[in-house]
Structures are given as structure tokens and as C-alpha cells.
Design brief:
The chain is mostly beta strands. It has one domain: Jelly Rolls. It is about 10% helix and about 30% strand. It is built from three helices and ten strands, in the order H-E-E-E-E-E-E-H-E-E-E-E-H. The strands form three sheets. Strands 1-10-3-6 form a four-stranded antiparallel beta sheet. The chain has a four-stranded antiparallel beta sheet with strand order 2-7-4-5. A two-stranded antiparallel ribbon has the order 8-9. The longest helix has 11 residues. It is globular, with a radius of gyration of 18 Å. The two termini are about 15 Å apart. Its main location: nucleus. It is found in: Nucleus. This is Fe2OG dioxygenase domain-containing protein.
Length: about 170
């Protein structure tokens, strides 16, 4: 990865997250900005070893439900097959507008994470997310209509290339 200067409005978010010392005392140095329209999601995935094993996400605009999956193990007869997520998430977290989510430890390294393609998230007493007590909108019977959501995924990339090294060759 080659570093680029962030616009001031985005650098403020990076500085605030860096002040939390989430990345072993080092500052965040990578931001991914994604837009999700109502009905859009992202398949369950892992971020991989390129990143420091912590990820922080700021949700702007709409809420969403982040699903965490325990990966299925590859079939014994095909050792090259990648672990696949089971059809149902192990748990889901409600990400409210203007919230900060931090995934680290086994939540980051063991579980796949994704967002189901949905326009409405229906909550009932059985399916309330484990973080419901901290989320005012997480009430039994709530039907949360998704709008446009912008996510700022802020993390640490341990190794980046210096542009001067690339250009000098």
C-alpha cells in the first residue's frame, strides 16, 4: 500500500480513533470508505493478515446489522477448499448511526463478518442483538428500515511503501 494524504474532514476521524490506542499504540493509517444503499450488503469475509488484528468502523447515515459467522471447516476430501460461513450467523450486532464498532481478538481473527442484503431489519425478543441494551432503537418488535449508510473502516496496516522508494527505481 502506498500512503496518501487524507482530506482534513476524514483525518479528524482517524485522529480520534487513533487516540483510543486500538492499534498497539500506533496510529491508524488506512481508511476504507464504503456506501451501502438500502437492500445492499457484503458477503461474509475475513480481512486477512495484511492488517493489524483490530478493525474499527464508524457508521454514518443509516443503521445496519453486522453478522458474525463461525467459518465451516473445509471438507476433509478437499484440503484446498477455503472455510465457508454457515448459512446462519452465530450472532448479529446492531450498528446505529454515528456509532463506533471495534472488532479485535477472536471476534476479528476467528469469525467472518458480513452484512445481509436487506431493506428492513425486524427485531423480536428472540433475535435482539447482544448489544441491544446500548442501542435505543433495538426494541422487541422494531422494524428498522435501512437507508443509505456510509462506513468508515479505520485500521492499521503494519507495512506501507514509501512513494519515494517506488519512484526512485
Amino acid at each position: 500500500m502506498v500512503p496518501e494524504r487524507l482530506p482534513p474532514w476524514l483525518q479528524r476521524y482517524v485522529d480520534k480513533v487513533s487516540d483510543l490506542s486500538l492499534f498497539g499504540g500506533l496510529p491508524a493509517n488506512h481508511v476504507l470508505v464504503n456506501q451501502y444503499l438500502p437492500g445492499e450488503g457484503i458477503m461474509p469475509h475475513e480481512d486477512g493478515p495484511l492488517y493489524y488484528p483490530t478493525v474499527s468502523t464508524i457508521s454514518l447515515g443509516s443503521h445496519t446489522m453486522l453478522d458474525l459467522y463461525e467459518p465451516r471447516q473445509p471438507e476433509d476430501d478437499d484440503p484446498t477448499e477455503q472455510p465457508r460461513p454457515p448459512p446462519r450467523p452465530a450472532t448479529s450486532l446492531l450498528l446505529e448511526p454515528r456509532s463506533l464498532l471495534v472488532l479485535r481478538g477472536t471476534a476479528y481473527t476467528r469469525f467472518l463478518h458480513g452484512i445481509a442484503a436487506a431493506r428492513i431489519d425486524a427485531l423480536d425478543a428472540v433475535s435482539l442483538p447482544p448489544n441491544a441494551a446500548a442501542c435505543p432503537s433495538a426494541q422487541p418488535g422494531a422494524r428498522l428500515v435501512r437507508g443509505t449508510r456510509i462506513s468508515l473502516t479505520i485500521r492499521r496496516v503494519p507495512r506501507v511503501l514509501r512513494a519515494s522508494l517506488l519512484l526512485s527505481k
